[in-house]
Amino acid sequence: MVLPSLFLFSSFTILKWCNGSELSERLGSNDTLSNGNRANLDAAKRLAKRLFNLDGFRKCDVARHLSKNNDFSRLVAEEYLRYFNFTEMTLDQALRAFLLEFALTGETQERERILAHFSHQYVQCNSSLALSEDSVHTLTCALMLLNTDLHGHNVGKRMSCTQFIGNLEGLNSGHDFPKELLKVMYCVFHKYSLIKQHFETLFFALFITDGKFSTEKKRMSIDPMLYKTGFLVRKVHADCDGKRTPRGKRGWKTFYAVLKGLILYLQKGEYRPDKQLSHEDLKNAVSIHHSLAIRATDYSKRPNVFYLRTADWRVYLFQAPNAEQMQSWITRINTVAAMFSAPPLPAAIGSQKKFSRPLLPSSASKLSQEEQAQAHESRFRSISTELVQLHSYPPDRKVKGRELEEYRLREEYLEFEVNIHTMVQERLVKNFKCF
Question: Distance (Å, rounded) from C-alpha 435 to C-alpha 431?
Fold first, then answer.
């Protein structure tokens, strides 16, 4: 079988990784820089901190600062990896957690250097691990290769479990890896791609007891905070971009709502921490980043109803059991969205002069609470000024329908943003500690 090309290595190349001196050479010495001067540890720590916090750097820029073949880059990589705590994680869980925060880019040798530092940090966090650092590094690279083979766009037959185990024969410091370990890892990677991993997915955790591997289910340690739970009745009012939901799909349905992180999960049964989310639960989930919840004062058919408009302009109606619960849901949703929604990205640019809303990232903001409040205040001033300017030059009555529609869309968007940021500032100033 021809293996795919994320890491173009043969069994002979992997075998070289099992040599302790080879890995030591990759990690390098911390004593001197490549020009002979003593490494500046303080400078490396400062740069690593900025890279981890994306302070002046983009996510795609980080890898090139960690993968250079010199002592200072190795120092920076070592300090950067210290920000990750892989304690009690299985290797695949640690790798998933790492790649959620880090974009692994560059040439094959550059990626391999970074994975060497990852392996070193993983072993440091798990001192009771039965595998050596070289074996962890070998298995890490093999898992990256397996993921590409199973989920990449390569044409041909996918790697089988037998082939995966066969490729690693004798590469555990001269011995074989436990077959049970490799089988479970193969099953996990066959079902779940390495990068596109949902926080709530349960994985097989591998625990080493007296040198033997056992399997049981364990949740990833990266777990969003739980903010509120309770019964809500939902009605879909508008689909993506505000398009009216077809009449047959607007019915009211009762769910047990769970606000966890930036996701509002709508489950059929009552919430239990140990219960795995079903496909239907994930399908019904609503992302609340950049959303706005307001009381539905114009809706009189049911009491205690509030609107929820999401970042993609879907609109939901939710009915709470009573007025107190309705206000509590509105407060919690708006506060979480205000505190953790990441700053918007510039709108897409096309050849046509057509209004496009900015891109709203679904990932959580990395800003501090103070920085988040300042970002919202700055955004509010900018949007307010833009809205005033728009109203200062209304379209002429003689303009075509397309231009009127463009004006309407822009006005609707700006007014919505002003309302959001007005509410956001109140939430951040008055209610940072509302829960």
Answer: 8
